[in-house]
Design brief:
single chain; about 200 residues; Lipocalin; 2 domains; 5-stranded antiparallel β-sheet; elongated; disordered C terminus
Length: about 200
């Protein structure tokens, strides 16, 4: 039986662990869900540190007290909730060592700084939506196979390579910031698919 390993600093960008403690016939059980977006697109369920099952995402694990639903996208976990039989939902808490946990601690200890980072992330994504996304769309539609099927697109904005690269890196960081704080907006986050190319 495999045991749950702590999240190391070098794994913080790709590996997540979320936990929930629930009543159990033997007292209380700690359930944990582990995902690693670099390794595979699977979720692993642990009970008191021992792996009990694994499933391809989106995944659902039936446990005493409900079902844990898990899914992940390009920038991390998008859903990790316990759904009870009466339909109520509880999000599992990020485990120490994860990027989500570190970000939650920053929010708790420095709320103003946290809000500032959140605002900057939104501004970066909006700037990317206007400037970088059209440039990436032009680049993608210049691929012969794509152009043949969908046609080409010419960006109304011409960006130097260094600026496009800078906006792309900033967009990835901003999208990751929004993912680890569970923020999502259809308009603000519309361009994150381009920053992941």
């Amino acid at each position: 039986m495999r045991m749950l390993r702590p999240v190391r600093l070098h794994q913080a960008l790709n590996r997540t662990v979320h936990t929930i403690t629930l009543p159990d016939p033997d007292g209380r059980a700690v359930w944990a869900v582990e995902t690693d977006i670099m390794e595979d697109h699977r979720a692993r369920l642990y009970r008191d540190g021992q792996r009990t099952s694994m499933a391809k995402m989106p995944a659902g694990f039936t446990i005493p007290g409900g079902k844990i639903e898990v899914d992940a996208g390009l920038y991390g976990v998008t859903r990790v909730h316990l759904v009870t039989p009466d339909g109520q939902e509880r999000r599992l808490a990020p485990a120490p060592g994860t990027l989500e946990y570190r970000r939650a601690v920053l929010t708790r200890d420095h709320p103003r700084l946290s809000r500032g980072i959140a605002v900057i992330a939104v501004v970066i994504l909006l700037v990317n939506l206007v400037l970088a996304a059209p440039a990436w769309l032009e680049m993608v539609t210049s691929i012969p196979e794509v152009a043949e099927r969908f046609g080409t697109f010419t960006s109304p904005v011409l960006l130097p390579g260094w600026l496009l690269a800078t906006l792309t890196v900033a967009g990835v960081v901003a999208a990751t910031e929004r993912a680890v704080t569970w923020r999502h907006n259809r308009i603000v986050d519309a361009e994150t698919i381009w920053t992941s190319l």
